[in-house]
Amino acid sequence: MNTLKMGQGKVVTGEWFWDREKEKELFVQKIDDGAHVLLVAQRRMGKTSLMAEVAELLAERYICLFVDLQKCRSASDAMVELSLKIHPHKSLWKKTKGVFSNVINKMTDSVELIQISELGITLRSGLTHGNWADKGSQLFDILAGADRPVVLLLDEAALMVNNILKDENHNITAEGKTHTNEFMSWLRKNSIKHQGKIRIVISGSIGLEPILHQAGLSATVNNFVPFELDPWDDETASDCIKALGNEYGIEFEEGAPEEMVNMLGCSIPHHVQMFFTNVYDRCVKRGNMQCSVPDIAEVYKSGMLGVRGHVELTHYEERLEMVLPKELCALALDMLTEAAVTGHLCDEAIAAFQKDYPIEGQDVGKIQKEIIWVLEHDGYLKSGEKGYVFVSKLLKEWWENRYKRFFTPILKRGV
Ligand SMILES: Nc1ncnc2c1ncn2[C@@H]1O[C@H](COP(=O)(O)OP(=O)(O)O)[C@@H](O)[C@H]1O
Ligand SMILES: [Mg+2]
Q1: Which of 42, 43, 193, 360 has its CA 20 to 30 A from that of 125?
Q2: Is the CB of 47 under 6 A from ligand 1?
Q3: For residue 41, which ligand has an atom nearest its CA?
Q4: CA 412 distance to own-chain centroid
Q5: 238: Cβ below 6 Å to ligand 1?
Q6: Cα-to-centroid distance, 46 and ligand 1 (Å)
Q7: Among the bound ligands, the one closest to the CA of 46
């Protein structure tokens, strides 16, 4: 009997990790082939988990360094994060200390004993805008000389690039563009120089490509092969729900797991897990572990579309605000609401929005294309028969519930 433990929103591996067999196999194959990989999928699809799971599979043959770039605001910050991940590897760290001899020598000999947080601060003090690239390249040279090949997993790289590129209004600045270009070109140069010795995997909850595209820097990642992570198919998702049920003693009525999958419409792993958690909580609260098909509809309405769902939606909105400049965000939200409330965003509606959102000196049609490209890339919309439609039924309903009250479809405005 298959069992699975609840993910609870954390990064999952091992007993918590479901399926992805084909993806694991392909991923490992690409790493073995020496490829640099751009892991692309919308948020909550399980990118970080897949990277962590694959890192465990590769651990005997490779040195895997998992670096979260989310909080980095400069290339120097990224060098600190990378160095901290080298720290546990004794022989590599010995050499790394040499790179930071400008600051580490000033400290006590027992550098190994100091707290990681303090070490981070010390390393940071040794990095400047003028020297990070050189020191970073030295780090790559050290990694390339390791006794096993290195897999460098850079998670949330797009958030870092976004931090560097834009000011507080999410507009790209000239300085940001220069710094982003310096960082991406440096990464590219090293990825080519150490091909075969170091593999780089880039991933994140917002797409790196739309961000780089906005800055005209797409070419900096053209030596990375895209690897797309799709939602689970219906069978994988319902088997996942059954395995969770087995672990936690839920007795599903025939057809109930399938109904859950059906209601989601798109089996993003986190949404599947969320749905199960809601079912489980309800069963425990009422002291009856049997779950019928009508129970499912009830849980969807009260749990998935309720307060918990709302928290998830907020994340989606925040990410969107990060990717798009402030003055475009209102238009993007309006276009998404049109798709959610009317069911699709058709060409006629897109054209009508241009009159509602005149942006001085700019071709609004072109801006809309850019917005749609971002919305497609980040998994909100897909092209349908009558126009763009939401990929996820759940996200559509969240969106609709939140915005429909004061919304008038664009073709009915001012009539
Ligand atoms: N292979 C998987 N098996 C089980 N649950 C998963 C899997 N992948 C993702 N999840 C669920 O989705 C949640 C988010 O996964 P995560 O790896 O953080 O996604 P991402 O990095 O794409 O945002 C996890 O907490 C877990 O509940
Ligand atoms: Mg992640």
Answers
A1: 193
A2: yes
A3: 1
A4: 36
A5: no
A6: 4
A7: 1
The ligand placed nearest to the CA atom of residue 45 is: 1
SS3 38: strand
d(CA 409, CA 259): 31
For the Cβ of 205 lying below 6 angstroms from any atom of ligand 1, the answer is: yes
Alpha-carbon distance of 333 to 339, in angstroms, equals 10
Ligand with smallest separation from the Cα of 4: 1
315 lines ligand 1 (CB under 6 A): no
Cβ of residue 149 lying under 6 Å from some atom of ligand 1 = no
Q: Give the global pTM.
A: 0.93
How far is ligand 2, taken at its centre, from the CA of residue 44, in Å? Answer: 7
Please give the distance, rounded to the nearest whole angstrom, from the Cα atom of residue 18 to the centre of ligand 1: 9
Residue 286 in tokens: 């009422």
Q: Name residues whose C-beta falls within 8 Å of residue 360's C-beta, 6 or more positions apart in sequence.
A: none
> Quick one: how far is CA 112 from the chain centroid?
33
204 in contact with ligand 1, CB cutoff 6 A: no
Residues forming a β-bridge with 66:
153
Cβ of 244 below 6 Å from ligand 1: no
Q: Which domains does the chain have, with CATH numbers?
A: 20-228 (3.40.50), 234-304 (1.10.8.60), 326-412 (1.10.10)
pLDDT per residue, tens digit, the chain (415 aa), is 899 999 999 999 999 999 999 999 999 999 999 999 999 888 899 999 999 999 999 999 999 999 999 999 999 999 999 999 999 999 999 999 999 988 886 555 455 556 777 899 999 999 999 999 999 999 999 999 999 999 999 999 999 999 999 998 888 999 999 999 999 999 999 999 999 999 999 998 778 888 898 899 999 999 999 999 999 999 999 999 999 999 999 999 999 999 999 999 899 999 999 999 999 999 999 999 999 999 999 999 999 998 777 788 888 888 888 888 888 899 999 999 999 999 999 999 999 999 888 888 888 999 999 899 989 988 899 999 999 999 999 999 999 999 999 999 999 997 6
Q: Which residues are within 5 Å of ligand 2 (an ion), measured at CB? A: 48
With contact defined as beta carbons under 8 Å apart, do 44 and 271 qualify? yes
Pairing of strands 36-40, 224-228: parallel
